[in-house]
Amino acid sequence: MTKRIIEPSELIINPDGSVFHLHLRPEQLADRIILVGDPGRVDMVAEHFDTRDYTVQSREFRTIGGTVGGKRVMCTSHGIGPDNIDIVVTELDALANVSTIRDSIKRLNTVVKELLLGILIFGAAIWMIFIWFISDKWGFSQGLLLGVAASALLAI
User: Fold this and answer.
1) How far apart are CA 147 and CA 127, in angstroms?
2) Residue 59, Ramachandran bin (φ over 0: left; ψ between -120 and 50: alpha; else beta)
3) What is the mean pLDDT of the chain?
4) I need a labelling partner for 36 at 20 to 30 A (CA). Which of 48, 70, 79, 137 fits?
5) Would you state the pLDDT for residue 107?
């Protein structure tokens, strides 16, 4: 099966890092999820949890997370209709998979900064070492500067 990437325009992330409708963050996602229609049933199911760690409510989407027998579990309501079920399942899937993409982008941004610094340091080191062996110092400096600038721009 081909893995589908969710486009940023198809998945809205709130400023706090939670998904748009459910208002859940990736760290709140449990491996065991119970889906119910009526938000009132979430409390009925959560009465059987050993612990309750969080409660999140956003319109008809209500979630309580906790543990049962030492295992993390959550109960989420989806409201009425297949459209709402699609929203809930899509956002739960995004919590499990899209957070990895976001973390990768953050790591990549850090690497690019280090790469740019490395390009500049390497360019300066090459200039300081080889400037003494070149007769056309101005031409060498211009060429090296253009090379370092091109490398830095390509790294962005």
Assistant:
1) 11
2) left
3) 85
4) 70
5) 67
d(CA 11, CA 5): 11
Separation CA 141–CA 131 (nearest Å): 8
With the CA atoms of 5, 11, 14 and 15 taken in that order, what torsion angle do they form, in degrees rounded to the nearest 10? 50
Asked whether 62 and 76 are in contact (CB, 8 A), the reply is yes
What burial letters (b/e) apply to 35-55, b meaning 16+ CB within 10 Å?
bbeebeebeebbeebeeeeee
Q: How confident is the model at residue 150 (pLDDT cuts 50, 70, 90)?
A: confident
Q: How far apart are CA 91 and CA 85, in angstroms?
A: 10
- How is residue 119 written in tokens? 């390009």
Q: Does the predicted TM-score (pTM) go above 0.85?
A: no
